Amino acid sequence: MPASHRSEIDPFHVMEVMRAAEDREGAGGRVLHLEVGQPSTPAPTPIREAAAAALVDDRLGYTNAKGLPALREQLAHWYRDRYDVHVDPEHILVTMGASGGFSLAFLAAFDAGDRVAVTAPGYPCYRNALLAFGVEVVEVPVGPDTRFVPTPALLDLAGPLDGLVIASPSNPTGTVLTDAELASLVDWSGRNGVRLVADEIYHGITYGAPAPTVLAHSSDAVLLQSFSKYWSMTGWRLGWIVAPAELVRPMERLAQNLFISAPTISQLGALAAFERATVEEADLHVDRYTANREVVLAGLNEMGCPTAPADGAFYAYADISHLGVPAPALCNLWLDELGVAVTPGIDFDPTRGDRFIRISFSESTEEVAAAMGRLVEWVRSRDLS
Ligand SMILES: Cc1ncc(COP(=O)(O)O)c(C=O)c1O
Asked: What CATH number is given to the structural domain containing 290?
């Protein structure tokens, strides 16, 4: 019997690049990683210590479907202390990463057949998860003319919409939405009866002003967040949602039925996430990304590649069209010839992505510098820059 139509979604290509890189490493080859969007560091020490203690002392049963009350309280305090925004802990749901939050948010906010806009380029799993839920995905092309921001003028061209998914800082462009841009998107969504979903997973990783939160402008938006990036906890599978009042109970029911609760050991570890020592350690990682970003932007400049803002997250989205090889073929070639893994833009923009690559600079500075050195040399030796 065939698989369902709804499961016929695209792969998450970056995972496929990772697999090809692993195959090469399995065969004894060395790969320099610019493809993986995850910190090369473990979680900060206080979190690991809290989890280790929990492993010894705690029963590690299920938690409440919305997550440990103490963790939700701490998250509410975080919004007060960091952003000066009041969040009711009852409106917070702890999830299995932001990815687990997608299922709750999209199922609670949208019906099959609804029209929901995502940006192109944008994080591919929004599009693919929405498609699996039977939602019609409307791609809004964004580019350098608006700093890759989906402006109200661009959204007006998309036809009637039920929802809009945005990310700030964005993957893959690193664009951080300003307060004014967030306010105008909140205003546009309100006027058009559109449910706004904002992914703030890269908050804390910025290279200029800190990223403002959508919660400062709206109590109708759904906010998605995660411990994966700033707190360096990708494998712990822990994130959270801040939901508008009318979606809290629907999301709680969905959480009970879809995954019962987020991993308890991760939640107990995350209770140490807001301690001063934790934040100091996480900020040191951001210092490393800042140094790496300089190396990557300088290299891309030497290669003659126009690059998206990269004001936040740890990615550079660069135009490689002048190199004369479409991105998927170029990425295969670089992996084979140079042992450097890079993600082709088609993951993020199915239409124009073969002209772009995404470079992740989350690894060590030595690794990023060595990999960029090889790419720059490859371009220089062919006189392509
Ligand atoms: C923009 C964005 N949202 C969500 C995710 C998923 O993260 P999580 O590990 O929290 O599921 C990622 C992962 O790379 C991402 O880049």
From this structure: 3.90.1150.10
Whether ligand 1 lies within 6 angstroms of the CB of 201 is answered as yes
Which of ligand 1's atoms lies nearest the C-alpha of 170? 1
pTM for the predicted model, two decimal places: 0.95
Count up the domains in the chain and report the number.
Answer: 2
The preferred substitution site among 18, 35, 94, 201 for testing ligand 1, maximizing ligand atoms within 8 Å of CB, is 201
Domain residues for the domain of 19 are: 5-42+278-378
Q: Mark whether 175 and 132 lie in a shared domain.
A: yes
Indicate the SS3 state at residue 226. Answer: strand
- Ligand 1 pocket residue status of 98, Cβ below 6 Å: yes
Query: What spacing in Å lies between the alpha carbon of 252 and ligand 1's midpoint?
Result: 21
User: If you take atom 14 of ligand 1, which residue's CA is the nearest one?
Assistant: 37
Instruction: Inform me whether the pLDDT recorded for 22 exceeds 90.
Output: no
Q: Evaluate whether residue 32 is within a structural domain.
A: yes
156 and 56, same structural domain? yes
Written as six digits, the tokens of 322 are 């002048």
Of the candidates 274, 301, 336, which is a domain's last residue? 274
Residues 11 and 99 in one domain: no
pLDDT surpassing 80 at residue 15 = no
For a pLDDT cut of 70, what percent of the chain falls above it?
A: 100
- Tell me if 365 CB under 6 Å of ligand 1: no
Own/partner contacts of 364-369, CB < 8 Å, gap of 24 or more, are: 364/40, 364/288, 365/288, 365/291, 365/292, 365/295, 367/32, 367/33, 367/40, 368/34, 368/292, 368/295, 368/296, 369/295
Domain end point (choices 234, 254, 274): 274
